[in-house]
């Protein structure tokens, strides 16, 4: 990158970031003591409390911050709800908070949007969800770990290096000196 362009970017970037106007709309109701996830569905702002909260989703009045509607999620336990998301048919509640790394019962609850919008109590589906953690070290019934073979990214790195060389010579830094690396 051109050094002058880099300097200009570094000077202007903070100025560009400061041009955003942020306006506080309202304070949240005290019953939302540890809100974690936030979702916008059909013109409604939906949230939940984090760990050890009730198994409820709360709709927030955007003008007052008060809870305008509470929907209880039957069959769900709020061990440590962290986030919400949605697709065309469902709202998903992520019960996968794991601050100490010791939980073995991670879950994602699935709630029908149609039922949510028309009722104050809905049943959560509990699909069999399995979590995988790259290079992790803890396992559970629905949590496993994986790690890629190192020769695969090394091969890809070699392809990239080979495509970028102008002299048609590339080198390889190896952790250990071996017959195989000398022949490569």
| Sheet with the most strands, sense and barrel status | 5 strands, mixed
Kindly report the average pLDDT value. Answer: 80
Strand line-up of the largest beta sheet = 1-2-3-4-8
The helix/strand class is: alpha+beta
Helix content, binned percent: 10-25%
- Counting DSSP H or I runs of 4 or more residues, the number of helices is 4
The Rg value, from CA coordinates, equals 25 Å
Shape: elongated
Q: How many structural domains can be distinguished in the coordinates? A: 2
Low-confidence stretches: none
Count of beta strands = 10
- Please trace the helix and strand order, writing H or E for each element: HEEEEEEEHEEEHH
Q: What share of residues are in beta strands? A: 25-35%
Distance between the termini: 33 Å
